[in-house]
Amino acid sequence: MNPKLPYVLLVGAAVIIFILSCMLLSRGRRSPSCESQPHIVEKTGSTSQSLVFADLTPEELAQVVRYLQGNLGVQLVDASRAKPSDNCIASVDVQVPAKAEVLQFLDGGGARPRREALAVLYFGNQPDPNVTEYVVGPLPTPVYHRDVTVQKYGGKVPYHRRPMLGSEYEQVGVFLETVAFAAAPTFLKEVFEYDGTNVAFQTTAPHGFRSGDRKSWFIMFQNVSGFFVHPVGLEVLVDHSSLDISRWVVSRVFYNGQYYRDMVQLESAYVQGRISVEKVRKAPRDGDFSSMKPRAPAAALLPLQYEPQGPRYSVRNNHVLFQAWSFAFGMSVNTGLRLFDIRHKGERVAYEISVQEALSVYGSNCPGGMSTRYMDGSFGIGRYTSPLVRGVDCPYSATYVDTHSLSETLSPSKRKASLCIFEQNLGSPLRRHYSNLQSLYYGGLVNSALVVRSIATVGNHDYVWDFIFYQNGAIEGKVQATGYASSSFLHGDGLRYGNRVWEHTLGTIRTHSINYKVDLDVGGVKNSLVAHDMAFEMTRAPWSPEQQIERPRLTKKVLDTEDQAAFRLQSKMPRYVYFAANSKNKWGHQRGYRIQITSFAGDHIPEASSMERAISWARYQLAVTRRKEEEPTSTSIYNQNDPWTPTVAFADFINNETITNEDLVAWITAGFLHIPHSEDIPNTVTVGNSVGFLLRPYNYYDLDPSIYSHDGVFFTSEQDFTACEVNPLACLPKSASCLPNFPPFTYDGFQN
Question: What sequence ranges are listed for the domain Copper amine oxidase N3-terminal (predicted)?
Fold first, then answer.
């Protein structure tokens, strides 16, 4: 062997290592970490002004609790362990000041409104049990409380209307296990292999057929992951109306298509062999078909969105600034995500945009399913806002915001990362044109919008709530539905009420209706409602009179009264309905914002129903009324448990008052019919299950405001479109060739 060969090999290896090192180093120089640019500077005072709408801080919530404990003269039990016969604090939320007072502060240099809380208390331990609402203030150090119950509702709120506490559900669970199930040990053991842990239950609502009832069907499922689609055929009607838990009783039992007086009768019939038993195959703890564990291993990394120079929006306290947009946000315990003081180019276009209610009406041939009309605001859309998973629920690099609340406890709770804010490149142009006639050019603008999102998990349903802000001055309110389909045990004529989705599982038909409050202030507080549409007219061609032309023309109508502005759910509505200002644009048109609804709602419950008035907002796809402080919401948390005598009936808001040149509110209902199908297993996807509305400028500006966006692209055939100064997209290989600074993945949801 040549003695020089080892040295040659060593030198060659050193050269290769040197080359590879240079390549790695040069690659590192080409892909540095992305660096944020300085954040947008806000106008002085804008952030502090938005605090007039801010949710209560943990310190303020704690102060309210301490004040109530020391100044009501009664003992308050922690609601998390309260019995129906106890006094307790159900919830505490911010009391948003009156609009006139807020506008005087924001626009007129008036004093900052007093900061107050609204506390809902259950008084079960007194001769006349009732629900009372107090306004407590001023914060942060309260010294007074006012009972506002009669002022808001015209009388006391009867105790039977109170939303069920978590402790009451637990007490019913104990009753079922220790009293109801104890009466049918043989049936439960032999049919369900019941061991005290393998059965889960889901409640229904409303609780009965008339005011004062508190009788609930509890549907039994296998206690596995995704239990909502594992019914076992047993449902129990519990009368829990008494404040004395020892007096609760089973009123009726249903099993596999047959009704029984109670569990004793069911047990007797089973022992005597008089029951048709349908044994359900025992599911593993992961739920088997209902498990959301992926059936495929991870593969190539999914596409990600990042911000090469950091966020182009700012979030300070409850105030958001994005390009020409600014607004304040909050999270109501009952109704969830809401926005205030929404401005575009410095001018207020809406005072409030908020979720009001999410209603679902079910059908089934089982008692629990056929009697269910869930009004999720009663359970708490904001209360059940769930922690968001970075990279799935929102983009990985979104801004995540913690929210705080006090509900069914004496201590404030933090909901970690329960709201996210992000700018999203929607992957399509907001507008564009390619010209190859006369002159040769391309002009376009990417559709990049700001999204504010929260996701509420109320029982089996997950609602993705979005408010989206576009560069052309449009706002979108959107909800996407996912989660598990609720189900019934398949028996008899069950296929009249849905589709079979597993061996014993009937995916039950239901309607979903979502109600929003939109308080538009277009060019000022006073607006009118105008409808534009089209009609064909027949005319003779002026240049050829013997020929007829059918041409569309514009129709215009001012809607003068609330009755004219109330459009029934399935009725034909003018395609252009807009709030008109008292000012005009450069071209002589009234400045306006148009309401455009996206909905494929099922039918509304018949108005002859004894409970329809409680959900009468769902009669209308759009209803515009005069804004009144005494009509702050379209419904009430008390309507769920007494829909037969509703605490708030939206139908009463519409009384033919004049709505010309008034402060107006639009109540928008969007919805969809859901007939569950096999692809809803393991759970429902958001695709196709998205409804909402758009608020679009209509002659509000003299031209499209997005023409002033910094993101616009324009070049001609005569320009060098590879030059950065001509075409900013040409700079991307250099300006966006950086590695995003993704924070480590964390999740605190299981600690909430």
Answer: 162-257
